[in-house]
């Protein structure tokens, strides 16, 4: 019990009155008063502290309320943002699902396209090999028939360029075989058939200008050569003396007239009779109306030689050229410049080689057929 309570209790009615203290105990009364003041001071401090604490708690409560309201607003904003984010997430999930379906569909289409591409590539390679085989067979036949090897070389180069554009590693053996055949064709010494045919065409065009042995005429006397009558007249005139009279002049005139008559008679006899050397008597006995057939026979021989040249038939070509040379020597005037030139050209044609052994394309054909067999076996 505190001191004030004690004091109140002491002053209450009905309480037992303690005996009076002795005089020597009256001294501590001031100390009890100070204690009361201290108690009241402590009470006041406690009340002030309680008031300050209450105000402080009110401030804290209002601050907490404000912060709680701000937190509620922020939570509401976050919930709205969360709802918007959830909506976007659902939209994104839907789009992702659509994209996944599209990706799956695209993957399926890509697989189909790859399968179709492989099928088309395989078919195109098979078609290419079939075309190459047919082209090589045709070029090989042309070479076997003696045709122009340059055409076969061009065909092989075109095939090689197609294989290079195809860029298929499985066709490497075919390309190597083609390159070897191309090198062999480039080294092949082909005859210039076109120039030989043109030379034969020139000879065919000039046949009508070649003179026959049966129609050859004697050459006319040169202007520088004086006729014998004129030489005799000049000699007679020169031999006659200047001092002779009319008798000598009449004699010289008679002598000149006689010489002129003899010269005219000799010219007529020369037109009737000809004396010359003929190695083939039957050529000189050809009638004039048979000259056409002689020229046509020579033309046929040259045409046959041209056909044999274009067909690379060396034996027939040489036989026709030799017959044409013999025909020129037998029935045509060998002293004529055109006949001599034609004979020289035909002799040059005899020295030309038109039937060289052309290379074969067996290696390229074998490589193509092996590639086709390997593709057929791999299926």
What does this 3D model show about the protein?
It is built from 12 helices and no strands. Helix 2 packs across helix 12 and helix 4 packs antiparallel against helix 12. The protein is rod-shaped.
Give the topology, please:
Layout: H1 3-11, H2 29-144, H3 149-166, H4 172-186, H5 193-205, H6 228-239, H7 246-272, H8 281-284, H9 291-310, H10 314-331, H11 337-350, H12 362-377
Helix pairs in contact: 2-3, 2-12, 3-4, 4-12, 5-9, 5-11, 6-7, 9-10, 10-11
Keywords:
Four Helix Bundle (Hemerythrin (Met), subunit A); mainly alpha; rod-shaped; 379 residues
Short description:
This protein has 379 residues and is mostly helical.
How many β strands by DSSP? 0
Kindly estimate the percentage of residues that lie in beta strands according to DSSP: under 5%
Cα distance spanning the termini: 117 Å
Instruction: Return Rg in Å.
Output: 71 Å
Helix content: over 70%
Q: Report the total helices.
A: 12
Gross geometry: rod-shaped
Average pLDDT score: 75
Secondary structure class reads mainly alpha
């Amino acid at each position: 019990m505190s001191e004030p309570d004690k004091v109140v209790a002491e002053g209450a009615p009905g309480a037992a009155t303690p005996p009076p203290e002795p005089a020597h105990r009256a001294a501590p009364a001031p100390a009890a008063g100070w204690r009361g003041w201290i108690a009241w001071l402590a009470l006041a401090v406690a009340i002030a502290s309680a008031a300050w604490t209450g105000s402080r708690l009110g401030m804290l409560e209002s601050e907490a309320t404000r912060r709680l309201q701000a937190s509620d607003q922020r939570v509401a904003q976050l919930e709205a943002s969360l709802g918007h984010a959830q909506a976007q997430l659902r939209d994104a999930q839907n789009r992702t699902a659509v994209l996944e379906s599209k990706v799956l569909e695209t993957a399926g289409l890509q697989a189909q396209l790859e399968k179709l591409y492989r099928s088309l590539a395989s078919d195109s390679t098979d078609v290419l090999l079939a075309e190459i085989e047919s082209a090589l067979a045709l070029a090989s036949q042309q070479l076997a028939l003696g045709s122009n090897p340059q055409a076969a070389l061009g065909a092989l180069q075109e095939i090689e360029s197609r294989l290079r554009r195809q860029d298929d590693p499985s066709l490497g053996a075919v390309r190597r075989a083609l390159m070897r055949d191309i090198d062999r064709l480039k080294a092949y010494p082909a005859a210039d058939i076109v120039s030989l045919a043109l030379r034969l065409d020139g000879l065919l065009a000039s046949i009508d200008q070649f003179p026959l042995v049966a129609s050859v005429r004697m050459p006319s006397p040169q202007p520088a050569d004086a006729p014998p009558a004129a030489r005799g007249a000049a000699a007679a005139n020169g031999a006659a003396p200047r001092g002779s009279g009319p008798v000598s002049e009449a004699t010289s005139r008679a002598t000149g007239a006689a010489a002129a008559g003899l010269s005219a008679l000799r010219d007529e006899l020369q037109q009737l009779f000809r004396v010359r050397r003929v190695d083939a008597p039957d050529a000189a006995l050809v009638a004039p109306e048979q000259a056409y057939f002689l020229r046509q026979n020579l033309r046929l021989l040259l045409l046959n030689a041209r056909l044999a040249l274009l067909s690379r038939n060396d034996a027939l070509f040489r036989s026709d050229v030799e017959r044409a040379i013999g025909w020129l020597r037998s029935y045509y005037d060998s002293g004529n410049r055109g006949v001599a030139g034609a004979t020289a050209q035909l002799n040059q044609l005899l020295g030309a080689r038109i039937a060289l052994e052309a290379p074969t394309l067996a290696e390229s054909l074998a490589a193509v057929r092996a590639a086709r067999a390997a593709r057929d076996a791999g299926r």
